[in-house]
Write a structure and sequence with these properties.
Residues 51-194 form the RXYLT1 N-terminal domain. α9 links the parallel β11 (301-305) and β12 (335-337). The protein has helices at 2-8, 20-46, 59-67, 122-140, 210-214, 232-242, 263-275, 290-297, 325-329, 343-352, 355-388; strands spanning 49-55, 82-88, 91-97, 112-118, 146-152, 175-179, 190-193, 219-226, 249-254, 276-281, 301-305, 335-337. Helices cover 38% and strands 18% of the residues. The chain has 11 helices and 12 strands.
């Protein structure tokens, strides 16, 4: 305040002392502030889009923390309200998540909104629908202009419920990014999105370390997971036991799925990824699973059972390599197999590999995964900007 007074009236001097130095300093501060404001303004002009992301499904954390490399305050994962922001491309993104983010109880600070929703089962769909109706109300009252949805889809790709909300079908949702090999992915307004890591179990953002790259690993492979009756996972366990290969691998099979990890079981799982050259990824309800991305995080090469699971997932008009079309299109350097009977030969080959070869493979995998996330981020930003920014044609 005194700066402004001093600048506005140079005769006025409350201290009766020689204030020239102070005045010069204050003038400099004033000019520096002006520069900063000008810079901020030009920066605001460059970020011509403001997008608010409402993270109402755990997959939002994969988008924000893993793909965008964004931070959240407070860092505490059980906080009721967490937020973060960053500039990317021509866009200023802010991200909100937590149980306290409830329709009508937070300020909508952007005209463009990305809703991250869970559509995996009927109860989740009912909750997701409430959010869509809230967004629709905001659209109708012109509080927001555009809506995109990132959807954790159903594992059998039963996502028909979202169709009426899409603009192409008379709704208001401009863009849809959906997990799994949904047949209605068209690369125009519907895009496939990666499942990512299990952020609902607080799987962390892993920074590659020297030892992750260069240390010998104690196990050829790992599989920690549920073995369902009459599934290919039973075949996998039998094959490993036959040749005593289970002694060379870290195998911990359980008969029932447990949604809540104990700290100990989670640490075990991370250790297994870090200590194995290969991570075995048998199909579950869907071929795509969190394990694939979690193995990549630790430089453990996924060995994927490349078979379609029952349901409505499959090829779309633009992709013809289901399952895992997105990963294949992006050139994922994984080992794809059609049957676990191929595993003994793969493990024999592993035994003969030198550490040097394994190091090269880990480098390639970690590099690929880093590029994959960067590519998904860029694609997401470009898609939003192309759809939400007024085009210059005209």
């Amino acid at each position: 305040f005194t700066d402004h007074v001093a600048l506005g009236n140079e005769e006025w001097n409350p201290w009766d002392a020689d204030e020239k130095n102070e005045l010069a300093a204050s003038q400099q501060r004033y000019e520096a502030n002006l520069k900063m404001i000008k810079y901020a303004r030009s920066h605001l002009e460059q970020t011509s889009l403001r997008v608010q992301i409402w993270g109402k499904a755990a997959i939002g954390l994969y988008l924000w923390q893993h793909i965008f490399g964004g931070h959240l305050e407070p860092a505490d994962v059980i906080a009721q309200w967490r937020e973060g922001s960053q500039n990317a491309g021509k866009t200023y993104f802010s991200f909100l998540t937590g149980p306290s983010v409830v329709p009508g109880y937070f300020s909508v600070e952007a005209e463009h909104v990305v809703l991250v929703l869970n559509g995996r089962e009927p109860a989740k769909v009912a909750y997701a629908t409430q959010w869509l109706h809230y967004a629709q109300t905001l659209m109708e009252s012109r509080k927001i202009q555009h809506v995109a949805v990132v959807l954790l889809g159903n594992e059998q790709c039963n996502n028909a419920w979202i169709q009426p909300y899409l603009k192409r079908n008379g709704g208001f949702v401009n863009l849809l990014f959906v997990t799994y090999d949904s047949a209605f992915v068209n690369e125009e307004d519907i895009f496939q999105w990666p499942l990512g890591v299990a952020t609902y179990r607080n799987f962390p953002v892993v920074e590659p370390s020297w030892s992750m790259l260069y240390d010998p690993r104690s196990y050829l492979c790992n599989f920690l997971g549920t073995v369902y009756k009459n599934s290919s996972r039973e075949t996998l366990i039998e094959i490993l036991k036959q040749d005593g290969l289970d002694k060379l691998c870290w195998i911990a099979a359980r008969e029932q799925w447990q949604p809540q990890e104990t700290n100990e079981s989670f640490k075990n799982y991370q250790d297994a990824l870090l200590q194995s050259d290969l991570t075995l990824c048998p199909v579950g309800i869907n071929t795509e699973c969190y394990r694939i991305y979690e193995a990549c995080s630790y430089g453990s090469l996924p060995v994927i059972e490349d078979v379609m699971t029952p349901g409505d997932c499959g090829n779309s008009s633009v992709y013809h390599s289901a399952p895992l079309q997105l990963l294949k299109t992006m050139g994922a350097p994984f080992i794809f197999i059609k049957n676990w009977k191929e595993l003994p030969a793969i493990l024999e080959k592993e035994k003969k590999m030198s550490l040097q070869e394994k190091i090269q493979r880990r480098k390639k995998l970690l590099e690929w995964y880093r590029n994959f996330k960067a590519w998904m981020r860029q694609k997401f930003i470009n898609t939003l900007e192309n759809s939400f920014l007024p085009s210059d044609k005209g």
